[in-house]
Amino acid sequence: MSSTPSPLQTTAAATATAWRDPALAFLRPFLDDPDVTDLFINGDRGLFVDRGDGAERVHSWRAGENEVRRIAVRLIALGGRHLDDAAPCVDVRLERGVRVHAVLAPVAVTGTTLSVRVPRWDSPDLADLERGGMLSASQREHLENLVVRRQNVLITGATGAGKTTLLSALLARVPSMERIITVEEVAELRPAHAHHVALEARQPNIEGAGGIPLARLVREALRMRPDRLVVGECRGEELRELLMALNTGHDGGAGTLHASGLTDVAARLEALGALAGMDAASTARLTASAIDAVVHVERVAGRRQVTGWGCPVVRRGRITIEPGRWA
Fold first, then answer.
1. What is the rounded CA–CA span in Å between residue 288 and residue 311?
2. In the predicted model, is pLDDT for residue 15 greater than 70?
């Protein structure tokens, strides 16, 4: 038998070596802390850690601008991309789904900035979220019924409000014989489900070639016979592809959308529809026929909570979200 290491073994070894770099080793304890959701480095102004109650400064950590820049370059290199003055804003995914976004100075006016999103490793289910206070027993029952009835669900909320966490928990309730295909810009969904296939978009290389956008991945996913089609974050023309797919018999699907409140979802949908070349009336008709429920999540006093839900309806040719009551 050959002793030549496989490409996966080689990559894993290189990654392990890189994490021993003193420039990065200090991050490892935070990445291994199950309570940490986000890390932020704001130039030479310090390191901030969010454990679910808001970002708190780590007073024991100090670094100058040159060291922060070196950390940013090394982290982005771990994800296989290059960060320099020609490409000062880069986003990558590292091992275990850790997402890193870096912006170099002077684009980041106060110094090189790093934002690190740390996904949960334990894939909490709805019962875990109920115990943690994110939702009530009646909300849990209502959400479970959405999955059982194969309703198409759109989860909305601000960045870090818990959209991905809630969606993963919902997908864990999907029967094991059903095939889930998720499409994301950066793969973060990790539902506890045996038949889950994740597709991840790819950014163009430095020559501008090789990019695979979300809209194309949605079309590719439809050729893979999904029982449940999920788009992790609708930001542009992929909204049109998702709505059209859900309108053609692909029920039980889901997506997430950035919105600051349930009442703001309609305007957000219209804006994304316009980016996809649809007018307000077309967006309204497609949304109302494709989406059965909109579930909104927020951070309340630093804690993630499900705060409301509604149904998309068309009024005078425009989409609106009609608030619903929990059973």
1. 8
2. no
The whole-angstrom separation of Cα 168 and Cα 127 is: 12
Closest to 318 in 3D by CA, of 286, 294, 291 = 286
Token readout for 3 is 């002793």
7-117: CATH architecture? 2-Layer Sandwich (3.30)
Alpha helices in the chain (DSSP H): 7-19, 22-25, 28-31, 65-78, 126-131, 137-148, 163-171, 214-222, 238-246, 265-275, 280-290
The residue-averaged pLDDT of 119-147 equals 88
Q: Give Dmax over CA atoms of the chain in angstroms.
A: 71
For the chain, what are the domain ranges? 7-117, 126-323
Give the pLDDT band of residue 113 (cuts 50, 70, 90): very high
User: Within its chain, how far is the Cα of 214 from the centroid?
Assistant: 13
* Residue bearing the bigger pLDDT, 245 or 144: 144
Question: Global pTM?
Answer: 0.79
Q: Are 55 and 48 in contact (CB under 8 A)?
A: yes
Equal CATH topology for 7-117 and 126-323: no
The class (CATH top level) of 126-323 is: alpha beta
